[in-house]
Design brief:
Helix content is 0%, strand content 42%. It contains no helices and ten strands. It has a five-stranded mixed β-barrel. Strands 2, 3, 4 and 5 form a four-stranded antiparallel sheet that branches.
Length: 158
């Protein structure tokens, strides 16, 4: 948790909400929905519909599902190149491609710290959370991550 002097900002502005809008506010990815055919996109589309059968250029911004199921996963054993900001020393992490519940759209993201590939299985349910990617000069740069959900629907501890 950030202290009173730490500023928290999204590492990528406009791609997600942080859920800091009150007690009932939850973080969410911000995508787009084509107003003509209903195709979802993430990150949000601004110029053309990704559906090859649609020529629309009109979209609405939508909050995407917060839960989904693991479609694929791997671990990042090697430090990604810049602009990624890695911990020093580098700590490997998991990546998951998650099919969102309602949209059936696959979104890639890190898995929360403490979860390894040995803890994951294709089809596992996960939920979107906001976490710090890195901190610099009194600012925490935030990103979305995926956190496993227990079989009873509770959020798993990482």
């Amino acid at each position: 948790m950030a202290d009173a002097t730490t500023t928290q900002v999204p590492a990528i502005d406009g791609w997600f909400t942080t859920g800091d809008g009150g007690a009932t506010s939850a973080p969410a990815l911000l995508g787009s929905r084509c107003t003509e055919c209903g195709t979802y996109a993430f990150p949000a589309e601004k110029s053309f519909c990704r559906n090859p059968d649609c020529s629309s250029t009109s979209f609405e911004t939508v909050e995407l599902s917060r839960r989904g199921r693991i479609w694929s996963y791997t671990d990042a054993r090697y430090q990604p190149p810049p602009p990624y900001v890695a911990a020093d020393p580098y700590v490997p992490f998991c990546l998951a491609a998650v099919e969102l519940a309602a949209e059936k759209l696959v979104v890639m993201g890190q898995v929360v710290a403490g979860v390894t590939v040995d803890d994951l299985t294709v089809g596992d349910e996960v939920e979107l959370v906001i976490d710090t990617l890195y901190s610099e000069d009194g600012t925490d740069y935030l990103v979305w991550k995926w956190r496993p959900v227990d079989d009873d629907g509770a959020i798993g501890e990482a």
